[in-house]
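DATA SHEET
Item: assembly model
Revision: 1
Owner: S.N.
Input lines:
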Amino acid sequence: MNIFRFSSPQTFYPLAGRLVPVFAVLAAVCCALGLWLGFFVAPTDAVQGEVYRVIFIHVPAAWMSMFIYLVMAFWSAIGLGLGTRLSFYMTQALAPTGALFCFIALWTGALWGRPTWGAYWVWDARLTSQLLLQFLYFGFIALTRSIEDPRRADRAGAIIALVGAVNVPIIYFSVQWWSTLHQGASVSMTKAPSMASTMLWGMLVMAFAAWFYSLAVVFARVRSIILERERHTDWARAEIARLGGGR
Amino acid sequence: MKPRHKRFLLIGVALILLGGAAALVLNAFQDNIVFFHTPSEVAEGKVPQGRTFRVGGMVQAGSLSREADGMTVRFVITDTAKTVPVVYKGALPDLFKEAKGAVAQGTLGADGVFTATEVLAKHDENYMPPEAKDAIDKAHKTARTVSQ
């Protein structure tokens, strides 16, 4: 099977349609299992008590917000390099979900910070760079929506996505490079996780839930974008008519 | 070279240059990006003179005392090499404890005492149930008794 076949919007559209319900069900299952592990199975933390349980939402959301931006940068590079329309559609479908996870990470972080650090917000390197990520997401969405010509909007958005990608390693390594109030990573590639195993499992399952949710929502969104952008083609017009839209 | 190879090369080069520029800028602003200074930096005089800054480290065990007014606390922040005595009037965060991390914001007096206007607790990235922590603490204590 030639996977490049699916770089055509027309062939990707039905594939994405078949995958959406699969990922949606997986997301719901992982989310239910993860929340159960996190709130009923994982033990209380010795230092922070129950408040640490926000980690089961906060960390998966923060991971996802950084990862989605990197995926956007990847598709932008492919789009600019190969001129494939679907790459730009993917980038635009990803942005709102990334922005949502970034927003969740910032808010759950604030609610976690108050009872532990004693402050909702501090301007340390981790928090500031994560806030910058939020503005990059908003900037990307605003820019691509505000340019009339869709081909120009694609390219302008791709440049923001690529330039902003420099911020992602800064967020990730900020806690190592500078003194910050934010603690270091509990889970990383280079060392054994520094948390009890049931806590870790709760967090990982929630991370999978975030992945599947993102896949489901982004594929559903990219289908809408495909129809909107390809509406001049016969197949898209037929599909829109089938869905009861158009004239 | 095909045009699309050229475009990818251009994107790659642009990203490398951008990353390099970001690294240089962040390096230049190193002193402004750190959230707090260590007691060693205070001792070496590497801290902003005459204005507010933050000092962070461990609250030295046994150094926390409360004055008669019940509001003013004194403690010592240490990075195991140097120490900074801190005086602070106000409520401390729940996680503020001796031998745990803390960050104080305020000004350094001529007498070397740091007058804080805000004190934050800094916790680490270790999460474990209380039983596991008890076991670790007990093991540490045993190790200490054995070595004495």
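QC remark: The domain at 20-184+196-242 of chain A is CATH 1.20.120 (Four Helix Bundle (Hemerythrin (Met), subunit A)).
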